[in-house]
Amino acid sequence: MKVFKFGGASVKNAEAVKNVGKVIQLFNDDLVVVISAMDKTTNALEKVVESYMKKDGECFKWLDEVKNFHYKIIDELFNDKTHQIYEDIHNAFVEIEWELEEEPLRSYDYVYDQIVSVGEIVSTKIVSAYLNLTGLPAQWIDVRNVIQTDNTHRDAKVDWELTEKLAKKEFELNASSSVKTVFLTQGFIGSSSENFTTTLGREGSDFSAGILAYCLNAESVTIWKDVPGMLNADPKLFSETKMLSNISYHEAVELAYYGATVIHPKTIKPLQNKNIPLYVKSFLNPQQEGTVIDNNTTHDSSIPSFIVKRNQVLISIESKDYSFIIENNLSQIFGIFSKMGVKINLMQNSAISFSVVVDFDVQKTPLLIQELTKDYKVRYNENLSLITVRHYTKEAIDSVVQNQKILLEQKSRKMIRMVV
């Protein structure tokens, strides 16, 4: 069995959905196909959540935009307007409407998971129905019956033992069948023991593919993108990019951890544990070889890689009485970050201050600063970028810092990181 993962860009409209069907038809293997929410649906549903939690009266307006977007795609894919898919999608959106009709009494993170997760349900329902319409039998699986997690909403931790048992049961192949089996399921989401929907972290569909591949001892995982493979930089930000044809699991983890958006950071570990190769290929040109990620370290340092994280906040924390920032202070500071659920992208300390760089979060960042201010003097800069250059050269560094003001810099043998 092989695991395929198609992201939002691969199902952004009706033509894209048709193309996914063509790519799947190219392979005679038994497949588990993981599909993300369509195009920018996750962002759109985040607007619904924020509006609902703020009680600004706009949440149903934002939801209508999401619904209209999906119904337009369905209308283009299905000539029969009485097809079951119309009722299935209606019912999926009703679940959101039920949530919105209640007062927002639960936490933001809980509400987020219940609403935003519907994007994956709707997307996979549409793609599954279309594949079956074209004569490619696809078994729709609700991944919430498989991937079991704790109740840390928006960043749920996987119960690997239980998930593996359920995966082998839900994705069981018919040994007597000569026809390839296609299971179609969701990325990004899981379920807690209380049967509430959870999510695995932003862009977590890659991780879902890794989880299922590990649990099913898959032959390989392929992530289908709108780029020819894993590039050494984001082509939207850099005019000249090079493809990394083969890198190691270790190199991929490093690049993903520091913000390369092609692969979710948690995806690699389960694959490395069972030596399952990961391919990054183009759904626009599926015959191209793309990138392979495996144990081979030969080409890891061949060319520099550039990673840019936008919308960063640099927070400088100082003791109010100019005493040293020592272990006790750091323990308290890390405790605050943990309690607020904020991840640190970079940190640096001096005698009386401790500086960190974090992603800006409209909910968490103001609360974090407010909490830190109780015991420390806090200064912060917003709207920054964190640039990482791995396997850097002087030319590589110069190419990215032109006309930039560097506020903080860290340098090691293999990597330089700059807040600009």
Could you explain the architecture of this structure?
The protein has 420 residues and is α/β, with parallel strands linked by helices. It contains 13 helices and 17 strands. Strands 3-5-2-1-8-10-11-9 form an eight-stranded mixed sheet, with helices on both faces. Strand 1, helix 1 and strand 2 form a beta-alpha-beta unit. Helix 2 crosses helix 5 and helix 7 crosses helix 8. It is globular. The model has no long low-confidence stretch (mean pLDDT 95).
Look at the helices and sheets and give the structural class. Answer: alpha/beta
Radius of gyration: 23 Å
Low-confidence stretches: none
**Strand order across the largest sheet:** 3-5-2-1-8-10-11-9
- What proportion of the residues form beta strands (DSSP E)? 15-25%
Main sheet attributes: strand count, strand direction, barrel closure: 8 strands, mixed
Number of helical stretches of at least 4 residues: 13
Percent of residues in helices:
25-40%
The string of secondary-structure elements, in order, is: EHEHHHHHEEHEEEHEEHHEEEHEEHEHEE
Number of strands: 17
Alpha-carbon distance between the termini?
A: 45 Å
- Mean pLDDT across all amino acids: 95
Shape: globular
Indicate the topology.
Layout: E1 2-6, H1 14-25, E2 31-35, H2 41-54, H3 59-77, H4 84-101, H5 108-116, H6 118-133, E3 138-140, E4 148-149, H7 160-170, E5 182-186, E6 189-192, E7 197-199, H8 205-216, E8 220-225, E9 246-248, H9 249-257, H10 268-273, E10 278-282, E11 291-294, E12 305-319, H11 327-340, E13 346-349, E14 353-359, H12 364-373, E15 376-390, H13 394-401, E16 408-411, E17 415-419
Helix pairs in contact: 2-3, 2-5, 3-4, 4-6, 7-8, 11-12
